[in-house]
Specification:
2 helices, elongated
Length: about 100
C-alpha cells in the first residue's frame, strides 16, 4: 500500500511499525521564590550566555527582570518580618508588658 510507510490509515489498517506520536509535556519550570533561587538561575543564565546558548540581548532582559524580582523578594521578606514584630508588640501591649 502506498501510504503504509507513513502510518496512514488505508482500508481500516494502521501501519504498526511506526509508533503513534507521544504527547510531550512542557518541562516544569523552577519557581523563583527565594534569593537563592534567583542567584542559581542568574548563574545558569550567565553560563548559558557565555556558551552562546542564550543571546546576550535576551540575557540582558532576563537579568533586568531578575533584578526586579530580587527587589520584590527582599521587600516581601522585610514586610513579613515587620508584620511578625508588630504582632509581637501588639501582644505585649495587650498584656501590659514591653
Amino acid at each position: 500500500m502506498a501510504g503504509e510507510h507513513f502510518g496512514i490509515i488505508e482500508k481500516n489498517k494502521i501501519n504498526k511499525e511506526i509508533p503513534p506520536m507521544e504527547e510531550k509535556k512542557a518541562p516544569r519550570r523552577k519557581r523563583l521564590k527565594t534569593l537563592a533561587d534567583v542567584r542559581v538561575y542568574l548563574a545558569a543564565l550567565i553560563n548559558e550566555t557565555r556558551s552562546g546558548a542564550v543571546e546576550s540581548g535576551l540575557a540582558g532582559k532576563l537579568g533586568f527582570l531578575l533584578n526586579i524580582l530580587r527587589g520584590v523578594i527582599v521587600d516581601a521578606d522585610l514586610e513579613a518580618r515587620i508584620e511578625k514584630l508588630e504582632s509581637e508588640v501588639g501582644k505585649n501591649e495587650s498584656q501590659g508588658t514591653y
